[in-house]
TrEMBL record:
Residues 315-423 form the SIN1-type PH domain. Residues 44-123 form the Sin1 N-terminal domain. It comes from Laodelphax striatellus (Small brown planthopper). Belongs to the SIN1 family. It comes from the Eukaryota. Transmembrane segments: none annotated. InterPro entries: CRIM_dom, PH-like_dom_sf, Sin1/Avo1, Sin1_N, Sin1_PH_dom. This is Uncharacterized protein.
Length: 453
């Protein structure tokens, strides 16, 4: 406990009071190095602790026990610094505030103009019942008329540059003047339904009075040179590509007429079914059926089926067959279309990878160089057929061949397909020469004299 008569405590308290109350910090600089205990005179009964101790030990007694400095150990800020900070904050706030000066307009409105701004309305007057119009209706009324068939104009090959096109002669039976066909040039990647749309687009320009139904109500059929529609063949599939078909003369027929024509042609199927039922019932009763009528109907069916195969013959089709070589046979893919015949070896052949000399090379022959395709040998489950082609040399044409082996049904289909294509194409002089040479060899074999044994 400290009393006010304690000189040491009074000096320490006074010293700390000066230091803490001085904002300039001069008292702290002056009094920091004083040693109070050594400077004071002491009597017999006065006790000043820390006389013999070092200056470092007096630091604990030089501080007031009741006063504690801040952790920053800095002097307090003056009022000037605080005021400057407030001025900076006010300046920043003032920069974000925009001052607008209100001025009266120089233009003076007349009484008539003021009256037009605020007109009096008679609320008693009944509003007229006017039907509102939508924005879509207004835009359609403003925009020019767009033909719905204009989207098919992009398939017109006459306006394309650097694109493969095909030319067709289209007869239109629904027109009064149907003596001359409509020449249509279409791009090769278009489909049959796109070709029909292009025909409609051309007709709408050249014959605007003719009204057509939807595209799905019409079909394209093969036609003769004079425009007669051949209903014996089916219509062209709408999803097929126009590049697959080799014939150029077509006719656009409505589906109702073509359907009636097909119903008349399909009576042969019904007659055949009825003959089969009659023959089965007559056999059950022990009676003999009429064989002549049955054979006639069967001949009609075979003729119609042959016509169907003739149409599909020009389409590309691939077969997996074995080509017979001098050493071994190799598995190849045989592709046949109306323009060419090609074959290339199958990829998954392990033996060909071992023996490079046994690999089968790919080959391609144009259909004009093909002269014949016949069955040569028929086994229990497989058949061999020969494809004869013309190989031009300096000495003249030389006929060579490739022998293939495949199942009987596939071999007959391939031979029939190639022969149909050869019949549809005009006979070349090389094919006529080969047929004459083969016929001459057959006569020589028949007339070969057999001598005595």
């Amino acid at each position: 406990m400290a009393f006010y008569d304690n000189k040491h405590w009074l000096l320490s308290h006074t010293r700390n009071s000066f230091i803490s109350s001085d904002d300039t910090g001069v008292c702290e600089v002056v009094m920091a190095g004083e040693n109070i205990a050594r400077q004071l005179e002491f009597g017999k009964y006065d006790c000043y602790p820390g006389i013999e101790s070092d200056e470092d030990d007096l630091d604990a007694y030089g501080q007031s026990l009741d006063l504690h400095f801040d952790m920053e150990y800095g002097r307090f800020r003056s009022n000037t610094a605080v005021r400057l900070k407030k001025m900076d904050e006010e300046r920043k706030k003032a920069s974000s505030v925009r001052h607008v000066k209100w001025e009266k307009p120089h233009v003076c409105l007349t009484d008539e103009e003021k009256a037009e701004l605020f007109k009096r309305k008679d609320f008693r007057e009944k509003r007229k019942n006017s039907q509102p119009k939508s924005l879509l209706t207004e835009q359609l009324a403003k925009n020019p008329f767009v033909h719905p068939l204009q989207i098919y104009a992009k398939f017109d090959g006459s306006t394309q540059v650097g694109v493969v096109t095909k030319k067709f002669l289209i007869y239109l039976p629904m027109l009064e003047d149907n003596n001359y066909p409509l020449v249509v040039q279409v791009v090769s990647y278009a489909k049959i339904q796109d070709l029909i749309g292009l025909i409609f687009w051309r007709c709408s320009i050249e014959h605007p009075d003719v009204v057509f139904k939807g595209i799905e109500n019409y079909s394209l059929y093969m036609a003769e040179d004079d425009g007669e529609v051949d209903f014996a063949f089916p219509c062209l599939e709408p999803k097929e590509n126009v590049a697959k078909f080799g014939f150029k003369i077509l006719a656009l027929v409505e589906n109702d007429q073509s359907q009636a024509r097909h119903e008349r042609l399909s009576t042969t199927h019904i007659l055949v079914d009825k003959c089969d039922d009659a023959s089965s019932s007559s056999l059950a009763k022990g009676k003999k059926p009429n064989e002549n009528n049955h054979q006639a109907d069967g001949g009609d069916m075979e003729r119609v089926q042959g016509d169907m195969n003739a149409i599909d013959a020009t389409l590309f089709q691939s077969f997996q067959v074995y080509i017979l070589g001098t050493v071994r046979r190799n598995l190849v893919h045989l592709g046949i279309s109306g323009e060419k015949v090609e074959f290339y070896p199958a990829v998954n052949q392990r033996s060909s990878a071992r023996f490079k000399w046994a690999q089968q090379k790919a080959a391609r022959y144009h259909m004009d160089s093909i002269v014949a395709c016949d069955l040569t040998e028929t086994k229990s489950n497989k058949s061999n057929f020969r494809l004869v082609y013309d190989h031009m040399t300096n000495d003249g044409p030389v006929f060579k061949h490739h022998d293939f082996e495949v199942e009987q049904r596939t071999a007959k289909e391939i031979v029939q397909k190639v022969n149909h294509i050869l019949d549809l194409r005009p006979s070349s002089a090389r094919r006529k020469e080969y047929l004459a040479l083969r016929e001459h060899k057959s006569h020589r074999k028949k007339s070969f004299p057999l001598g005595p044994r």
